[in-house]
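Researcher: We are triaging several targets before committing to wet-lab work. For this one, the compound of interest is pyridoxal-5'-phosphate. I'm pasting the protein sequence and the ligand SMILES. What I need is the predicted three-dimensional arrangement of the protein with the ligand bound, expressed as structure tokens, so it can go straight into our comparison scripts without reformatting.
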Amino acid sequence: VPPRPPLNEAISDHLARQISTGALKPGNRVPSVRLLSRRFKVSTNTVLHAFARLEALALVEARPRSGYYVRFRSSDALPAPRPGHSRGPAVPLALGERLPGFFRAMRQPGIVPLGAAAPGVELLPAQRLGRLLAKVARVRGASLLGYDPLPGLPVLRRQIARRLAALGASVSEAGVVTTVGAIEAIALALRAVTKPGDAVLVESPGYFGVLQLLRAQGLQAVEVPCTSEHGLDVELAERAMKRERVSAVVVVPTFSNPLGSLMPLDAKRALVSACAAREVPLIESDVYGELPFEGERPLPLVAFDRDGGVLHCSSFSKVLAPGFRCGWICPGRFQPEVEEAKFTQTVATPAVLQAALAELLFEGGYDRHLRALRRALKEQVQKAREALASSFPAGTRVSDPRGGFLLWVELPRGAVDAIELQRRALEHGISIAPGPLFSARDGFSRCFRLSCGHPWSPAFDRAVATLGRLCRA
Ligand SMILES: Cc1ncc(COP(=O)(O)O)c(C=O)c1O
């Protein structure tokens, strides 16, 4: 007797829900046919039909004489995106020109936040930071109300220098200047080492914040293609430096934005010496450096610097509190120019926020927080890759980062243009960052960046499934 469709569907829907919420995990044995038939008061035949449906959805697999198991998903088989092309100097477009409505989209209420590169605030130590803010305000009182003199609050600079020294960088407390986020640090670095009209070597695709700074400071971008695995290819960078006169190199060597790539140690060392040999200042943003999924924290470029030519920029934005806007720069031999630019630009960095962060670093527990954050981000990135694998068209390529929380997706030929995809996604209440934002030239029109900073939930699975549907159309 054929089973009544609603019954087997009810059972398969129930199990699919358990799989998507993680109640049943990859590799788990699904309750047996006998048990489910008793629990749902249906024939074993009906349960078998439910399993057939789950098998067709690639959610479970039968193992001979052992039962049904939740499948390990196919995300491991997603191929990596291909590198782009080398591009000569160009002035980047303004964000609003590249993507009309960019800032409006950021404010859209109730959006599923797959666009902005920020960690979910649920993952951040809000109570502890609140307690420490109250404590420093009480203990240090009026001393935190004045302009904090350059180069920034000594207690925080000491903690930053201590952590960098532990990685082998020759940076002392005196060599750290605190800033309003890493973006100010990069802006100051560029001001210190370039003049309007100069060209700067950048990654392609590369962080749009850097491209916007180049535009704002009248600079041109020389783009060098990167792979999602190893980031900037030093040989290609050297070739570009031979071809074009560049006044600086800007790179995100560890878990870059948007590719999530990690430059191997040898490549980092080679890039530092190639720039030193040409006397080209090397600006690094290390904002994702503390976020490897496994193993040791990768070394920043400044750990290889011997002559003060590396301007190391970072912040607490991706690990503690993007809203505090607290970052720093270790400007090496360009410290006088950087301090001059900092004074001109913002005079000082808010003292009370620096003091609270210094207290957190001093108290201990920061490394424990980082370990928990890394575990959470690793899981979120994996879940996002699984969701992409199950709902995007064949031929889609996705990066496989070893840290951070950003994925780079390249759609197959014939799929929708990324700017159009972003527009349609917004209509469905979903934000993404389309590929063309990450280049000064037209390009990456079939790519987008997906940010996995927030704890994964069924709403994100549904959003990725919607994106998959939209990009076919
Ligand atoms: C590579 C990189 N550098 C710098 C920044 C800016 O960081 P902050 O928010 O601290 O200014 C970002 C933010 O997305 C980033 O991805």
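Researcher: Any quick observations?
Model: The longest helix spans residues 366-391.
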